[in-house]
Every structure is written in structure tokens, then in C-alpha cells.
Structure prediction request, 728 residues.
Amino acid sequence: MQKKADGQNYAPKGKVASVCSWGEFKVGIVGLDHGHIYGMCNGLQEAGAMMTMVWDPDPAKIAAFTAKFPGVKAAEDEAEILGDPSISLVAAAPVPCDRGALGLRVMDAGKDYFCDKPPLTTRADVGLARQGVARTGRKFAVYYSERLHVEASVFAEKLIAEGAIGKVIQVVGSGPHRISLPTRPAWFFDRRKYGGILVDLGCHQIEQILFFSGAGSAEITASRVHSYKYSQFPDFEDFGDASLVMDNGASGYFSVHWFTPDGLGAWGDGRTFIQGTEGYLELRKYIDVAADPEGDHVILVNHEGEYHHRVAGTCGFPFFGRLVRDCLDRTSTAFDQGLVFRAIELAIEAEEGALARGQGKMTP
Amino acid sequence: MQKKADGQNYAPKGKVASVCSWGEFKVGIVGLDHGHIYGMCNGLQEAGAMMTMVWDPDPAKIAAFTAKFPGVKAAEDEAEILGDPSISLVAAAPVPCDRGALGLRVMDAGKDYFCDKPPLTTRADVGLARQGVARTGRKFAVYYSERLHVEASVFAEKLIAEGAIGKVIQVVGSGPHRISLPTRPAWFFDRRKYGGILVDLGCHQIEQILFFSGAGSAEITASRVHSYKYSQFPDFEDFGDASLVMDNGASGYFSVHWFTPDGLGAWGDGRTFIQGTEGYLELRKYIDVAADPEGDHVILVNHEGEYHHRVAGTCGFPFFGRLVRDCLDRTSTAFDQGLVFRAIELAIEAEEGALARGQGKMTP
Prediction:
């Protein structure tokens, strides 16, 4: 079972299933501000990628990284990685507001880019990132880990594709997180840097809602951010939610917050409910609360019965192998570039709309 | 365990706990169009009320009722019940659009009124009902059964009052129902008669969201109705959802629909998630899907741990005894008259807003 008291350091490990020969696909790492970089590199390495060089302005972060990935060289600076022709992909988790500009530098250096979420924090960044992909022909992949690095989600994708619940008409997601205040860096509380809760945590949810409903886009019909408890941080939002209508007619809603209580055996009781015309799925991603500390539970109810699938260890994480092959073969099997950008664009739109309507209009 | 393949005929039975002497509190029954009337009368009878006279235009419905409640007299007409000075309360479940006018007649006859949900289907009806209560000093109680007749909800109310999860900041409800098409009367498919899905099923949800969040009112920030599957009935909506912001700052969302698959061992996997600043509750009301066919599960997570409470048979349904005593003593312990009306008014507002924005704007 994965260690998961704290979401920021959750770095799932799966089965090693190399999709290339050793040394064929080299990865440079730039920006270690978020612990997600470990999950990203675990996934790539299990798919056969070789981590070769790492850079961050903070030597302590580099030392921590190279302790977990021995043999990875500490670069002199970012330019050394971008200038190394042997590196195909740059994996990155700097402070959120810096991820877009780094992506442009990476793609302009002729490399593919694999970025932690949220990949971008402003509409302008989204426009530039789209232009960068068009200009360079490079990939801008995003670690939407709550779908890509969760076996329950991988299993759900299969069930939906098999028609197990008919046509998807609604997706409801909840993304509670533990705040773990003492461990958070300053940028965590600065909206200009993390983008706001509907960007930081909401983009995960919107990506899942779009993906599971099979939609290409959506309209945000309502969104809200609020600070219920942590008002000592004026630019921090501890709650957000939004309603959506997909472009294919499906309905969506999600909420995200930082109120996971200390007694839960995971950083958050993340759920996804996927309703179809002929049945429904419930994903209990990180824990089956008060029943099983192990995650990756998928409940399926259809016209035949009720089924509880425990899928931990059964599906793996096919995203990473597909990403490596996509980069090598110039194919698009791991992700849809349009959807990756649209998800974060909608998250930014939801956040901006919520702020415009007034965060603190109604105070408890 | 209650029979619960079909929500319309779900009539919970609890413990008998008389709050008055036998014959002290007499009830007349008018309108048997919805099977909820059986749950309403069960609850009243368990609290010590005596069912004395029943009327409905359909003799078959009267025969079915008197078979279940022997000793209840079939009235000649509604007037016989309204004119009987021994009757204190009229319990009623006619077609939804007729419930408001009946309530006025009942209250003007000097009796209290206890009505199935949705109690009212238009804004005008709500205004008239409010005026009726003010004019007569009578009670207009509503059978919001998804809270009042569910032990999981009764238990949750206690936990919240004890501070088990801190201050409530969000309530999310889902109210899926089995459509059971062959059993449905014509009015079930006629929006002018049932009020639309956000009225018919949504009022339950809004009442719970207001109640559990401790709010007096709310703003509907988004609402939607749609017909995903049963388009052969042009005035029938098979899906609805809405987002709300409470007047005390809490957030709310609910969805309701008619897509419970045949394989579920209950008419619907109704859930309520109540998030507090210091913990959360999940109510699995009618079933613990794929785990326990019995309902009334309450999951509590707080800073100390995760707890699964199986509360079926432990709480009873205090609403009914309180209602009987309120009618006898002219107190207000069972329900808040303002909240009862505000819940249905918000449901009507959500439905009207959804229709105005266009039900079929995006068709799958």
C-alpha cells in the first residue's frame, strides 16, 4: 500500500513494464517545488524511461531527489538540461505560476514537456502554451494524477468503454485534501502563485469530468471559492466548487477543499460518481472509508446487480508507457492535447468567475 | 428491513411510542394519489394518532387504504372530513398541483395540515399557503420523508448538534430514484401536475441542505433539468441538479434523477455528504451498496478516526410524535414553518430557472 497521509508526497509505484530499451528515452527534471515530481518520475521510470539530469535552484531539493533517484546528475542550471540533445522529455514541478513559461522554453528547445498540475494559472498562459505546441510540434503533457495515477480511474475508464453503464450523463467529483499546514511553502498561500483552489485542485476534477463524460468542452454554470477557516492567509482559499454542463449534454459538479480531518487514513476521501443511462460507478480512490485503508475501490451497479471491485495492483498506470511511446513515435495515445489545455482553461475560468462574483459575499 | 424496491411505496415502520392517549388526536386522510400517504399514516399512528376517516375520488384507492388501516371510515366526500370537529389534522397526498389548494381548505376549516412532498408547485401557491398559515394560525407540515423518515438522517442531526464535525460548510445530496415506468400514473409525466423534477424530488434535497447546514434560506446559483432517456414523455424530466449558497455561507449541491438501475437492491442509492470544518458525515440512506442491503448507515470521520454507524432500528422517527404534540400544544418543535415553505419555494425557483435557461439546449 502507498504511503498517503499527505497528498503532496503521494508518489504511487506500479509495475515495471518497459516500453523502450534502457537509455532509449532520457528525461531531464526541472523544478522540484511540488512533491508530485516523485510520482511523475516513478511512473516514467517504470515505463522504461531513464532519469538523467535534475535542476532546481534549491540544492537541498536536488539532494533529496538524487537520494531517491541515484545516478541522476545535478545540472549546473536549467540551460544544461535544455541544451542536452540526449534528453527527449523534461518533467517539471516548479511553482505553478512558473510552469507555463518553463514549458515554452522546453518546447522551444525541441523537447517534450511533462508538467505537474496545475500546468498553467492564467488565460494568457494557456494561449501561449497552445501557440507553443503549434509552433514547435512538441507535447505539453500534464500530470492529472487523480485520474492518471489511480487504478480505480483506469478501471473505470475500461468499464465505461465497454458500455457497462450505458451513456454517461453525469460526473460528480469530490477532491478533499489534508492541509498539513506546517509542511506548506509560502507559495501555497499566494493565489497569484498557486492559481486559486479551483485551478490548483479543480483542474483535476474538470479533467476527470470531461474525460469520463466523453466531452470536449463544457460551460461553467456556477463556481464558488471561499475561506471558511484559514482566514489568517488572506490569499488562500480553503473551499471551491463548480457546476458544469458538457458540450455533449452531460452534467458535472465537483467540490475541492482542505478539510480532511486528522482521523482519516488517507490525505483525502476522493470520490468520483459516474452516472450512466444504464448504471453507475462510484470510485473510492484512496480509501474505502471506515472499511479498508487500501484505495482503488470501484463500485459498479447495473441492471444485473451491485459489484465491488478492489482493483489495487490490477491495472497499473498505462498513461506513462503510452506517453513514452508517444514521444518516441510522435503518436497521441496517452492524452488529448486539446483536452489537457481545455481542462485547465475551464478551471481558470471557474476561478475567475468565482472571484468576480465575490469570494466573501456570504460569510458564515 | 423495509421493502424498498420502489420509492413510491416505501412506507417505513418504526417503534410505537404514543405521545397522547388513544383517541385524543384524530386524523382524517384526503387524497391517496401518492403511496407516501402510507408512510405518513404509519408515522402518525406509531406516535399515537388515530386515523378515523379517509376520502379519495377513487374507490379502489380507498379500499386499498382501509385494507391497511382497518377501522378507518370511508367518507362521503372531502367536506365530511373537513366538517368533522373531532379531526385535528388532515394528512394528504393528492396529485402535487392540488396540494396547496387542499391545504387552504383544511386550514380554513380550522385543522392542521400534513402534506406529502412536493407540497406546492407554483410560486403563487407558496404565497397563498403562507397567507393561509398567517390567517388561520394552523400548521402546514410537509412529509420531507428523505430526512424525516430516515434514521440515518435523525442520527446525523444528533451528531451535528453535538458538534461532531464542527461547523457545517457544505451539504451535497444525491437522490436517485427507480422509474418503475409501468406503475406510474399519467400525472407523473405532466410537469404542470408534478411540478418538474427539481420540485418533485429537488424539494427533499433543498430541505435537507438548508436543515443540515443550519441555514434559513439560500441562493440558487445554478440549476438544470434535462431529459436524457425518457423523451417519449415530452413533459417529463429524468434529471435535475442545482448549486446553492446558503444565507449563512455554507455551500450546497444536489442532483436527482430516475436512473436507478434494476440491479440495485433499493429504489435509489440516496446519499448525503455533510462536510464540517472538523470532520464529515456520509449518509448511505437506503442501502450500503454492494455491502449491506439494509439502509441507515452513517459514516463519521473526525480528527480521532473513521466510524461506521449502523443505525437502523436505533433512532426511530421523532418527527411524528413532535408533530402530534405540536398540534395538541400549539408549539413548534417538529418543524420550522418558514423553512418548510422556503425549501419548496427554492425548489420552484430552481425549476423555473432551469426551464428558462433551456432544458434541451445541449442534447447528447
